[in-house]
Write a structure and sequence with these properties.
The chain is mostly helical. It has ten helices and no strands.
């Protein structure tokens, strides 16, 4: 359990350690996705476009064009297009790494676009199955290979495949809670007590100290 907490803390640090403009975009998408997910508890459930529609309508901005876009997406003839888009969103989640975090955001945008056409559960299920299926295929392909320590070629290692898949899944799952997490951390920062940092002497300082201990 402690290892899991450390790994999640490491991934959270990676998610928040990005350029400022990326963090702003990520927070906007985070608020949008969180509002959409929570909106499934109301009756009738909210669609992704209804989240900005509610905000714009409150501000007095015309929202007829968003309503028209929603009706266009829900046409039966376009159902398969959004089903494929949901699968693409899951594959974008699977492509997320510590150095390539924008794919998680693109994946959520693709899933929300797909949900506008086919609904929340069909879009989410297809994205999750696509992501899990892709990782499973790579894991199965990695099983027959024998990896040598001295290998000089790119290969698939079962343990590394599972680790990369778990990291991608965690990073994608952290997108909806990113904005809320940053706010909570900022509010609690003045009230938490951090342990003192251990001071490790440098090699030169240790060497100088050893030289100073000379007998007369």
């Amino acid at each position: 359990m402690r290892t899991l907490r450390r790994e999640l803390a490491r991934i959270w640090a990676c998610v928040t350690d990005r350029p400022r403009w990326q963090l702003v975009v990520a927070c906007v998408i985070s608020v949008w996705t969180m509002a959409w997910v929570l909106g499934q508890a109301v009756a009738p459930p909210m669609t992704p476009l209804e989240v900005p529609m509610a905000l714009l309508d409150w501000a007095g901005v015309p929202v007829g064009w968003l309503d028209g876009a929603g009706h266009w997406a829900r046409a039966d003839s376009r159902w398969w297009v959004f089903a494929v888009l949901a699968v693409g969103g899951g594959l974008l989640w699977a492509a997320t790494t510590e150095r390539a975090q924008l794919t998680a955001l693109y994946g959520w945008l693709a899933v929300m676009a797909a949900a506008e056409g086919i609904g929340y559960h069909p879009a989410i299920y297809r994205a999750i199955v696509a992501m899990a299926g892709f990782i499973l295929v790579l894991w199965l392909l990695s099983l027959p290979g024998k990896v040598s320590v001295m290998t000089n070629r790119i290969t698939l290692v079962p343990r590394d495949v599972l680790r990369a898949g778990a990291t991608a899944a965690a990073m994608a799952a952290m997108v909806p809670v990113l904005a809320v997490g940053l706010v909570v951390i900022r509010l609690l920062r003045p009230y938490v007590t951090r342990p003192p940092k251990a001071v490790v002497p440098r090699a030169r300082e240790a060497q100088d100290n050893s030289k100073s201990l000379v007998r007369d």
